[in-house]
Amino acid sequence: MEKLSPQFLATCRRNNGRLLRGEQMTRIETFVDAAFAFAFTMLVISIDQIPRSPAELIELSRDIPSFVFSALILGSIWMAHATWSETFGLRDRLTIFLSLLLVILVLIFVYPIKLIMQTTVEFFAVNRDLEFFYTGLFESPGWSGAEASVIFEYVSVGLILLSAILIAFYQNALRFGEELSITDDEHRYCVTNSLIWGVVAVTATASFVIANLFAESNIQFAGFIYFSLLITISLVTAMYSKFVP
Q: What is the per-residue pLDDT across 100-153, written as a single tens digit (0 to 9) for each?
């Protein structure tokens, strides 16, 4: 890759200390965006039927929280890729390969993500007497503790792979640091986000271990551990900012 010219860099807009080298969308970025848009449609509350009565509308509305939470997860993944692409604008073979892997992974794990969110909402609805959001999910076949652990294992593997792919994006940008004329702020951006997704991968690994080792009656802790991300991500980023000014 040839080093970007000073003339080109001078024309790039800045956003939060980052030069936007990739504002011109390419076919691979358009493809990734289209894949994420399709994944969002797979999360839609009622993709195969239209409510024909107030009762049916209420019944479908019970799925709104799991749809919102699933969409937020997918949205955060899309935003991470979009911001990275906009900042560095890389078009090398590794970027294309990683983008294709990201699309494949998202389309494979979109339903497990939705199911884990439905499980979470159902758990709190049952234990907090939130009758409106109670769907009777746990009354359907296949919801013993041993079988439920498969969901946590499935999602854990997906998050570990996803984190590895996103970390690879940031490290690939650092690999072309000289050619891209990466600034100190952009270097910190790559390292910080690599640490964030590293924390996600470690947490997903812990969830996988819990799902395999804990008793069936305590299988919910394989899901509860993800709430620790609210603390661990902030703690890791704060520590990095403190020791690497």
A: 999 999 999 998 888 888 888 887 777 777 776 677 666 666 666 567 788 889
Distance CA 173, CA 159 (A): 21
What DSSP element (H or E) covers 15? Answer: strand 14-15
pLDDT tens by residue, 47-105: 556 666 677 777 777 778 888 899 999 999 999 999 999 999 898 999 999 999 999 99
pTM above 0.85, yes or no: yes
Give the chain's length.
245
| Beta bridge pairs of residue 18 | 15
Residue 13 zone, left/alpha/beta (φ > 0; ψ -120 to 50; rest): beta
d(CA 171, CA 97): 14
Number of Cβ within 10 Å of residue 228's Cβ equals 14
165 three-class SS: helix
Residues 6+ apart with CB under 8 A from 116: 151, 152, 155, 223
Counting Cα atoms < 13 Å in the Cβ hemisphere of 216 gives 6
> Is residue 122 a contact partner of residue 62, using CB atoms and an 8 Å limit?
no
User: Domain map of the chain by residue range?
Assistant: 19-243
Cβ partners under 8 Å of residue 205, min gap 6: 156, 160
Calpha distance 169→126 (Å, rounded): 40
Rounded distance between C-alpha atoms, residue 79 and residue 186, angstroms: 16
Please state the φ and ψ torsions of residue 130, each to the nearest 5 degrees: -90, 80
CB of 151 closer than 8 Å to CB of 112: yes
